[in-house]
């Protein structure tokens, strides 16, 4: 056990009773669940939620995102429990139990999707800097330097605490939502009526799928499982880790709802909103809502991209390093885990270079990322349900029958959504 994990075990092992003991243990265990879910409100997700608000207002989509918390929790709790009980990452378990094809399939699809996701993060992070007059290439390099510097900090615990601080700044979107002076009566009516927006049925369906897709992503599973292991969490701390995961899921949908409310302030007032990029959204806030809401929204967008760049890159490097048996801990120095850090930094550099390609088809990248995410998520979920239900692997912590039925229902739901997403993509998107 290294110094950082010893520090973690010491904190949760300190004596105490009652409320103080509970809060101390919860503070120590806080991390992987919240980071995985909050980071899913990434730069691409923020823009997608904002565009949804601009196009449709709040009628259908505010209640929808709130209802996604149980779906997200079901998936992330299985990932956390699998990592804590087995102390083996998902990629390696899939390789050991289902063969080399599925092991390498998961990694290759994850890495490709993560690369596309990182491209959208850099686009979002650099948007505000570009509006300040900084050239795109310099804005991208500044963002790259910041994200790379983060991983050079000492130890998992230090990095996790800083990342939690970054994640807390997602509350800036709630501040912007309040500054738009939304109608509480309309928000209440949205929950009571659940009105389907008056628009093309296919378009509404596509945005519903996109909203659900934004709430769950394959990298979250890989990140939370590996983060749980790297932190040193075991099956003894499952109760507190479930609270960490549940809190993250609740915060994620609340912030997502806040972003939709932000977009609803621009309802029907942005031209060609379907093609709007981050700079267009920020500029529209400046013109319609005000300068400070635009500045704060731009800051929140940068922060969302920053946190997601860290977590998405780590999900790739953790998974690849574990699959091949390399050193893979954030507690390791650069010289102790060179391949692990090379994947982390290399994926960021490659994504930054892609952003600088002229006339980059941003919408196409977003669509490919969404479809690929659906393709990857299905086998990942199937393997996850099977492994967490296996008594030989999980022992007393296996998934029980009621939860197993619920988990398979989630698989069936995502299968249906993936099929509809394919249909919507190839019938409505102009390639």
Q: Strand fraction band?
A: under 5%
The tally of structural domains comes to: 1
Per CATH, the superfamily is Amino acid/polyamine transporter I
So what's the CATH class? Mainly Alpha
- Please state the CA-atom Rg, rounded to the nearest Å: 21 Å
The helix/strand class is: mainly alpha
Overview of this protein structure:
With about 425 residues, this protein is mainly alpha-helical. The protein is built from 20 helices and no strands. It has helices at about 5-10, 20-30, 30-40, 45-55, 60-65, 70-85, 90-130, 135-150, 155-170, 170-180, 185-195, 200-215, 220-230, 240-265, 280-290, 290-325, 340-355, 360-390, 390-395, 400-430. The model has no long low-confidence stretch (mean pLDDT about 85).
Kindly summarize this structure in a few lines:
The chain is mostly helical and about 425 residues long. The chain is about 75% helix and about 0% strand. It has one domain: Amino acid/polyamine transporter I (Up-down Bundle).
């Amino acid at each position: 056990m290294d110094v950082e994990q010893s520090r973690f075990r010491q904190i949760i092992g300190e004596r105490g009773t009652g409320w103080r003991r509970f809060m101390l243990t919860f503070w120590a265990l806080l991390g992987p669940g919240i980071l995985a879910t909050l980071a899913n409100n990434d730069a691409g997700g923020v823009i997608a939620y904002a565009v949804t608000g601009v196009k449709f207002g709040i009628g259908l989509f505010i209640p929808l995102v709130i209802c996604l918390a149980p779906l997200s929790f079901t998936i992330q709790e299985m990932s956390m429990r699998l990592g804590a009980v087995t102390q083996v990452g998902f990629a390696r378990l899939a390789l050991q139990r289902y063969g080399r094809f599925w092991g390498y399939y998961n990694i290759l699809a994850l890495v490709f999707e993560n690369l596309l996701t990182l491209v959208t993060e850099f686009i979002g992070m650099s948007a505000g800097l570009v509006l300040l007059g900084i050239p795109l290439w310099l804005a991208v390099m500044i963002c790259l330097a910041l994200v790379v510097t983060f991983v050079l900090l000492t130890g998992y615990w230090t990095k996790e605490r800083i990342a939690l601080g970054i994640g807390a700044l997602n509350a800036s979107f709630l501040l912007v939502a309040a500054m738009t002076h939304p109608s509480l009566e309309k928000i209440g009516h949205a929950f009571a009526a659940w009105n389907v927006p008056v628009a093309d049925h296919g378009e509404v369906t596509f945005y519903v799928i996109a909203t659900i897709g934004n709430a769950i992503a394959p990298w979250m599973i890989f990140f939370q499982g590996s983060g749980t292991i790297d932190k040193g969490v075991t099956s003894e701390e499952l109760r507190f880790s479930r609270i960490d995961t549940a809190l993250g899921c609740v915060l994620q949908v609340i912030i997502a709802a806040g972003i939709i409310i932000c977009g609803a302030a621009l309802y029907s007032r942005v031209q060609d909103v379907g093609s709007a990029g981050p700079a267009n959204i920020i500029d529209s806030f400046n013109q319609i809502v005000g300068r400070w809401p635009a500045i704060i929204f731009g800051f929140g967008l940068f922060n969302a991209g920053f946190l997601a760049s860290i977590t998405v890159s780590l999900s790739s490097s953790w998974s690849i390093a574990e699959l091949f048996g390399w050193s893979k801990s954030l507690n390791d120095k650069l010289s102790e885990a060179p391949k692990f850090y090379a994947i982390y930094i290399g994926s960021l550099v490659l994504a930054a270079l892609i952003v600088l390609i002229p006339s980059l088809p941003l919408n196409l990248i977003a669509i490919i990322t969404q479809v690929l995410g659906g393709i990857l998520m299905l086998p990942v979920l199937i393997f996850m349900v099977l492994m967490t239900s296996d008594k030989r692997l999980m022992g007393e912590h296996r998934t029980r029958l009621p939860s197993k039925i619920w988990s398979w229902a989630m698989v069936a739901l995502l299968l249906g959504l993936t099929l509809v997403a394919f249909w919507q993509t190839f019938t409505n998107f102009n390639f």
